[in-house]
Amino acid sequence: GVAGLIPFAGLCVLVATGAASVPGAAGVAPGTALLAYGAIILSFLGGVRWGIAVAMEDQGRARREYVLSVVPALVGWGLLALPLGTALWSAAALTLALGLFDYGLTCRNDAPEWYGRLRLGLAAVATLALGIAAAFV
User: Fold this and answer.
1) CA 63 to CA 54: how far, in whole Å?
2) Sign of CA dihedral 39, 45, 51, 55
3) 25 forms bridges with which residues in the sheet?
4) 22: β partners
5) What is the pLDDT, as a whole number, of residue 54?
6) Nearest to 90 by CA among 103, 101, 77, 107
7) Contact call for residues 118 and 1 (beta carbons, < 8 A)
């Protein structure tokens, strides 16, 4: 999970320092790359939520989780069509909200306690990176 923060931090630094493109990827703006990575991570986290729902004993309760699990991917994809600043602010808010929702899985004993703590920490750093980058766009 911590390694997954490297692109958030690195791309945030590039945006904040005004880099015109991502090193090694001429023509790819750091803010655009950060937004794309954020959308990918939102999709990944939706998949994790789906996996947790599959393991639930009460599949009636799991139905809500199945529905919620596809929302991050759809919203992340939709963010790619927004103006960059708006999209980065939105991605920051969604990343934080999803971290809190995932912590809720822990509170309801649907996920292990360590997962909730991990998700809160990772969401906080990713949210901060997205928010800082949005402020510089």
Assistant:
1) 9
2) negative
3) 22
4) 25
5) 93
6) 77
7) yes
